[in-house]
Amino acid sequence: DTDEEAYAALRGRDMAPNEIAQKLLLQGAQNAWDMLSEEQSQKHITTGSGDLNGILGGGIHCKEVTEIGGVPGIGKTQLGIQLAINVQIPVDYGGLGGKAIYIDTEGSFMVERVYQIAEGCISDIMEYFPCHHDKSSSGQENLQPESFLAGIYYFRICSYTEQIAVINYLEKFLGEHKDVRIVIIDSVTFHFRQDFDDLALRTRVLCGLSLKLMKLSKSYNLAVVLLNQVTTKFTEGSFQLTLALGDSWSHSCTNRLILYWKGNERCAYLDKSPSLPVASTPYAVTSKGVRDAGSSSCKRVRVM
Amino acid sequence: IPSIDTLLGGGLRKGQLTEITGQSSSGKTQVCLYSAAHVAARHMGAVLYLDTSNSFSPSRIAHILDELPISLIKEPKDMRLKRVMSSIICESVFDIFALFEVLDRLEVSLNCKVTNGSNKICLLIIDSVSSLLAPIIGGKNSQGRSMMISVAMILKKLAHKHNLSVLVTNHMVAGNGAPKPALGESWKAAPHIRLMISRDRGSNICTATTLKHTLLACGRHMKFQFLPS
User: Fold this and answer.
1) What ipTM, to 2 d.p.?
2) In A66-159, which ranges are continuous DSSP H helix?
3) Which domains does chain A have, with CATH numbers?
4) pTM to 2 decimals?
């Protein structure tokens, strides 16, 4: 064991060599220079909307936990499903070619809609790469909606204990399924809002869960996307946003995106990011899925 | 960041534990990244950055370095970038026990180093220490609180013995009415210097306030802005 060897060596000498001490310290650590080239070569998961990708710095980042908050009906689940599909875009077509884990706490996952979004994704790929699928080694048979559906590992959970259990189970699952590149939890605070009498315990549990998810995203190089409820008040030109379970939770993510209505148009606002400025952009949810605002496909309108 | 340096009385002090507290996305991580970049750039020594939320951004560090005034020593920009970035070491820490382990290894490393100026760690950053303590603090079990006090003692001892500056971030929780720094009353006495920052969403201007300082008066405010990306 390297640790024991090093400690034995240190005890046995008056002056330990710098190399052992340095090696001991650097175990598990990296310097920023190495991380820079890694970061620059990272692929992002497209959201389907070029504008939305723009404010996110290319798309959803792997190795990071991104929280997406929004009022009910704004389309968080739509975006979640879109990401579960888009992560599977083959490498040949600029995607990650990975699989998705979708943890559904509210039962929002509608298979028919997933199929529709998969079809929308495929038709867009065909449009941008018209001659490519003839030459592509992966073959045309992979680009079927059914295979996109098969690439989503779906977990339906009905209580907070099941949620804690599934997150604990994820490590084992990810060890066995190394092609997973995104984990989506829809929605992360739903089962913690009622039934929990001891609020301090709830805070501890949620903080513990978020650290576990951080660790998984880093070790397995995947994106973790947490969908959360939020209420917004638009007063005097600025927002009053209240994320569900607010202060106890809000530090536990790398990035935060807030989805909101501006009149009848959907907008997204990047609220937290270590390297990107705050910014907002409109986007749309169409029959094909999440796209840029001003898309030609028929849009889903605000129902309320 | 000049305003923060002024509030701190010249900068992050060696041998002392400085805490930055603030609400979500108020700029705590940015202060950490700026500190890491500046200390590494000025040849003061190596920086150990412990990250609990995968927020350490090498490209942001590179950007901050880009904006620095040209140093007195003539050094090609890309060589300087590599040198500086190589002296910032980042490690991800996701639980309190891993933190104790890293601090232990750091102690061993600092104890047996022959003075090798530019490689010796002189700044330790933990962003954020409160995330690691949040899962164990509160409740009837007092073990969490005692671990927090242990962490504080170890950090201060490391700072004092090896002349390190230690910078930690803390988040805020809902108090009775106004939000207050997390980690409670027992933690308040731990850092030598405590600063609180907040960001006005509309104008993107941040405000820093001194909550506690060993030498300077408290309650002073300074305003500043981070460089855009």
Assistant:
1) 0.87
2) 76-86, 111-128, 132-135, 145-150
3) 42-129+141-292 (3.40.50.300)
4) 0.87
